[in-house]
Amino acid sequence: MNVLVCVKRVPLTGGKIVLTDDARAISTRHLGFTISPHEECGCEEAVRLIEQHGGSSTVLTLGPPEAEEQLRDMMAIGIDRAVHLVTGGSEEWDPQATASAIVEAVHNEPEPPDLLLFGNESADAGNYQVAIRVAHKLGLPVVTGIKGISVIDDGRLRLEQEVAGGRDVYVVPMPAVVSVKEGINLPRYPSVPGRLRAKRKPLDTNTPARPEPRLEMVRLALPPGSGKQAQVLGGGAEAAPAVVTVLAELGLV
Amino acid sequence: MSVLVFVEDPADELSQQALSFARSLGEEPTAVAIDGGESYAPAAWGQALAALTRERGPSVVVAPGTDRGNEVLAHVAAELDLPMAANCVSATPGDPFTLTRIRWGGSLLEEARLHGSPALLSVAPHAVAADPADAGMAVETIAPAGEAVVKVSERVQAHTAGVSLADADVVVSGGRGVGSADGFAVIEELAALLGAAVGCSRAVTSAGWRPHTDQVGQTGTKVSPSLYIACGISGATQHMAGCKGAKKLLAINPDAEASIFASADYAVIGDLHEVVPAISAEIRKARGA
Amino acid sequence: MALAAALAVSGTLFITRARLLARLLQTAAPAERSGDIARRTRNEATIVLGQRKLLQRLGPGLMHAFIFWGFLVLVPTILIAMIGIVDKHDTLPWFGHQGWYALLVDIFCVLVLIGVIADFYIRKVQRPSRFKGSHLGEADLILVLIATIVTSLLLWHATRIALHLNEWPASWSPVSNALSKLFADNQTTRVLERVFVWIHVLTILSFLAYLPRSKHLHIFVAAVNVWFGRTRARGRLEPLRFDDPDVPEEELRFGAGVPKDLTWKQALDTFTCTECGRCQDACPAYATGKILSPKLLIMGLRDAVFAQSEDAERPLVPNAVPADSVWDCVTCGACIQACPVSIEHVDHIVDLRRHLVMVESSFPSEAEPMLRDVERASNPWGKPQSERADWAADLAVKVLEPGDPAPEYLYWVGCASSFDERARKTAQATAKLLQAANLDFAILGPRESCTGDPARRIGNEYVFQAFAEQNVETLNDAGITKVITGCPHCFNTLANEYPDFGGNYEVIHHSELLSTLVRDGRIKPARPQGELPITYHDSCYLARHNDVLESPRQIVSAVGQPVEMRRSGKQTFCCGAGGAHMWMEERAKPINEERVREAAATGAGTLAVACPFCNVMLDDGVQSVGAGLRVADVATLLSEAIEDTSRPED
Question: What does the radius of gyration of chain A's CA atoms come to, in whole angstroms?
Fold first, then answer.
């Protein structure tokens, strides 16, 4: 089978977010970068599916030139090739623009994918819609928030989604679009031979034109502080009685 | 201007919040639910809602920012080729339509303009208060459209022991500071005494000490308990995105500078391995007395 | 002739085995151990001839020295005996007639016998635990053979004296002379004289054949292994090359996975092991009930080296060495220090880890967040680098920006002191002291990333090298020449390992600088601090790997009354954080608690340290053991001593 996974390069924000002076981006000076957690699990899932069922996998990103790092990281865990849709610096691409660019890239693929994997939502923008838009444009069935994928013999996928009280099961024919959530698997740690091979794996680049945004970011802002001043109940084990007093006030003891 | 609100269940707090949000945008909104029977079929539901939207021509369509709400609304957006803003905290109709939505699970806000009509918005959970009177709201029910290729075929019951994390009223959560899988014994002890669920941070799942189902955070479970007790958790934004729904937060951390204290109601500066068992002992004493 | 036949048999047996050993060394992976001739010569003289490392334990060491020196002295007697077999009236020209040599022979035969008897006593009566797991039967046999050799020599000399065949003046060999009174000048003695010389020579020849098949091989290879021992800094690990243009990628060496991955030095290490167990005795992991025994590790690898012709692809872990053993190590180097024959156990362990981590991605799962964080967030705590200088927020410390002129000193703070709440106090104290002394210094702040030490020690050499290159570039671009650091792990990596990546700096531990400032009067502590004495815990990376012992002690003496623990200086007992153990779980009994108990037993009120890891580990230990000790870095103690207010309430 042929699997395509879409990923996004995001900063590791840590404890506090700092904005640029014009408040139109996060200041990434001194920040490390990674892939959105849901998507990293998507890549691991792609590698597992190919290990199990044979075929090939591709990782794709719409992102700045530095995003090649993320593509190579995913090729290091076993994805066969990468497609880099290169954008300028800190350009914002809204979900519709992102989906169009991905769809165009899919049309350019030598072989149409049987399965397109996305993260349920990206860690930064969290728009929850790219997978669904791509599926609509490609005319493919789409299921989101998946925590379990298996291939049933006749070219169908059995998908599990966590809901209150259990899991909902969907069975869809391939080709299909699936968005996954972290927890579907534990991504493997890349081996060094894998990383060295990844440096030489094929990477196709393209520079799509950015359409006018229809969900247009004007500026970013930090949420107002809760204004909370934590009440210090004490230090060490001696604080226990004070804690229990609070618990009693909350009706828990 | 007319507003359509997709509700999942009038009795559900998040659906009520969506209705309150919608009400703030204009005249009394029309609440719509989709009767899919036992089987949820996202595309078919989206199609039905999209058809209704075309038919009724509202200026805004609102949905709760739940998994299902976001999903159905995204299908509507894709069907109608319209932009959609997920997890909004506020919106101002106009030309252009402006809104504020959350990024990074709530650690950052985005002010944006929506270029398209109707405006499609989902409401960030707990961005507005629900009005319990809305439990009795009038809901128009429509049927899903079309032949559903994608629909739920079965429901597998969960066999989780203990309290479910998502529903728990109290959560006791452990982070890196716990130090090992066995170290969670003190967390579990306190949780058992309080009838609480056990949660953990992403570092803990990454270290293999707890399963992902216990993970609280932006990419884990988002919890909204009355009390969240964070033990040995530094307060990274992606974790806070999962527990900011808590009404009260007690943080236990040896580092007085840890960022979690900026979001905490109560603080204990100390090592959880000493503090947590001491709390458990005090609880037992209080109950025994 | 019978002698020729015996020689041929023994010689053949010896040579075939020697060829096997040579072949095993030739087919092993390469290692760079050339140069430094002067140092190597000095090592041969002190360690081999002088038996310096053996004498670290005076009793057994002296007994071995007797046997070893005896062996050296008695080498000519082998020739003399063989000549004596061929012609009972002949001996080595000149040498065989020398009275002083005969005296030496007598003395050393006795010393060897004393050594053998003492060794039997140690092994059979005292039965020290370091022999647990060793092949004791082999040792017994060897001791018997040695005893037989010298006894037969003495008796042969005795009979020769009795028969008036001695070529040397009998009065020069008092022992043989005394023994000769047991024999009359008669036919029985003539027969016995032949018997004794044959016993002597045959025993030697059997010994020769047995030698390369037993752990007694060390008498040949030990000298070789000592010659090729490490001459560069003790704390430095040998880098791997990932980008060798001469080596195709499939043949790159990523550490030791199968026997043939071991380098010839590592193979030689395993041949040299005598199973003495001193390393096992010194190992803090073994002492606290873990599986790791450096001795058993080397023995396991030795067996694998010899067995590789049967199955070349048999992984070393877990077949030769259990996985837990590999992970238990804290890289403290006590084993290497104890080893009399220059085996480098830590190199073996790190190479095994390298293969496991870099090729198999197999390592304790709790270390995964650290590895991912180091790589993505540039520090093992996973905190954002933008917050790295927050500890200095109120201190007006200069943060060096790109393009700024180079300060005289760069204060390399390290990840622990930047992000850990206990270690942070040390950085603050150090900065205040440097300011009080008006030193021109700056910190890199967010541009200082992890030195890569935890990644390297856990075995991820690839990630380590990325950091080494990045940090060297930052430091070189900033024109840094002198670096002060409070963390011995950073110290070790910056001073000893970064030169391999183009980074050559004068690296000073903060205790060295601070003690100099105290000595020069630029910092004036008031003393004493408190009433109870202060005991100083030596960091393995500072004391054992890098010989910094006195400076922290000078600071302690300047602020209080010092008291030493038994295991101090280079004999220090690890805190348990080395080898990336700061981020790994520990099995069995905790190493840090063991050390805290030792500290508490001195009666001290303060446990002084000079390392942020020791600080955290020992403080944790104090809390879990419930000891009434305050753990503080020497910089913190000094800083408090120069302020008017004394130390905070406990």
Answer: 21
